[in-house]
Each structure stands twice: as C-alpha cells, then as structure tokens.
Amino acid sequence: SDPGTSDTDDDFHEFEQNVEEPTDVIPEGLDNSGGCVWQPAWCDVCGQWQPLRTYHCKVSGRCVSKFDHYCSTIGTVIGERNHARFWWFLLFETGTLAWAMLAVYPGFHDTKAEVGVWMRYNGHALAAEIVLGLILAPVASLWLLHSFFVCANLTSYEFMRADKIGYLKGPAEFGLPFSPGLFTNVRGVFLPDGFL
Predict the structure, then answer these.
(1) Which tens digit of pLDDT belongs to each residue from 43-56?
(2) How far apart are CA 14 and CA 172, in angstroms?
(3) Which end of the chain has less Cβ packing within 10 Å, N or C?
(4) In the chain, which residue ranges form alpha helices assigned H by DSSP?
C-alpha cells in the first residue's frame, strides 16, 4: 500500500517556482511546528522540497511523508498513509501467534512419568511452543512499540534518530512536539480521512 509518498504540495510547488536553487529559506506560510526548529530540506534524488517529517527512503527511492521505516518482511515503506495498516498487521500477527500457542497446549500429555518418557510424548508440543514463543515475543514487542508510536504521534525513524534530526533538536529530551493529545493522535493514524 502507498506509504504516503511526498509529492510537492501546493505551498512547496509555489515556493519552488520562485527559487532556482535550494536555499535555507522557509517557504512563506510554512511556520515551525511544536517548538521545533525546522528548515525544509531539498531532495536531490526526487527533485523536490521535503515537507516536515518527510524522509527520502533509499530502498524505495522516494520521499515518504511521516517516514517510519522500510519493512523488509512485507516489502514496503511504512509511512503516513499505511501506518494504521501496519499496526493492524502486527496486531493480527500477535493474536494469531498467541492463538497458535494456545492451540498447541492441549497437545501436552500428562504422563506422570520420568523426564525421558514425558519428552517422548510431549517433545513435539514443547518444540512448537518454544518456536511460537520465540516468534511471538518480537512481534508482540513491535506491536506494543508501534502502539506507543501511534499514541505519541511519533515514528520509528524519529524515535531512533531524535538526536540527529534537525527539527527535533529544539524540544526537550523525550518531548513529543507533534502530539496534540492521545485522542487526536490515534484518530490521525486510524481515521485521517474517515477511513481505516
């Protein structure tokens, strides 16, 4: 699905027409947000100004609005327009793996015997539980982390590189400069245009 590829928006398109070379000037009407110091960046690859919170993904070769990360598991960039779908994907994967672990549990036999006999009857179920648990732990952790990102209106990219991103250098440590509140953050991810 489309991650939110950044096409030049009207403000930037109008600004580009008046400027021949990229400069450090902020386009008129595009003020700083949330106490952040922001200067628009020029993307040489895409040939456009990058709006706030946009990053050029080297893997996909395009600028992505509210860039989160490139997910090699599903083979696409996670950005503004598909972060909700990615969150749902993680939720369903977590639920499916948890259900699979519960489905394997009745496969254990209570032999009330020594360890060797118990392993002969239950080794396959124990191996399945271990494998499923090893897969469930990182998937569930990723779902919880992205739940936090949704609630905080934050991205993985901003979370991991906050000290290197220019527009995040102004806010206090652990500040959430783009968070207008929990309800607004969640609605902004899941219902930006009235759709999931």
Answers:
(1) 999 998 888 899 99
(2) 33
(3) C
(4) 10-18, 83-104, 115-152, 156-160, 182-190
Helix (H, G, I), strand (E, B) or coil at 124: helix
Task: Give the span between the Cα atoms of 189 and 171, in whole angstroms.
Answer: 22
> What is the pTM for the complete model shown?
0.78
The stretch 105-125 carries a mean pLDDT of 85
Q: At what angle do helices 182-190 and 83-104 cross, to 10 degrees?
A: 90
Torsion sign over Cα 141, 63, 72, 100: positive
Integer Cα distance of 81 and 137 in angstroms: 27
DSSP-derived secondary structure letter, 27: P
CB contact at 8 A, 43 and 56: yes
pLDDT digits (tens, 9 = 90+) for 149-175: 999 999 999 999 888 887 777 656 557
Region 13-30: what's the mean pLDDT? 44
Instruction: Give me the phi and psi of 48, to 5 degrees please.
Output: -150, 160
Q: In this model, does residue 16 exceed pLDDT 50?
A: no
Rounded CA-CA distance 165/66 in Å is 13
pLDDT in the model for residue 73: 92
pLDDT at 165: 81
Residue type, 10: D
N-to-C CA span, the chain: 13
Q: Which residue has the tokens 């003020």?
A: 31
**How much is the CA Rg of the chain, to the nearest whole Å?**
23
Among 28, 67, 68, CA closest to 46: 67
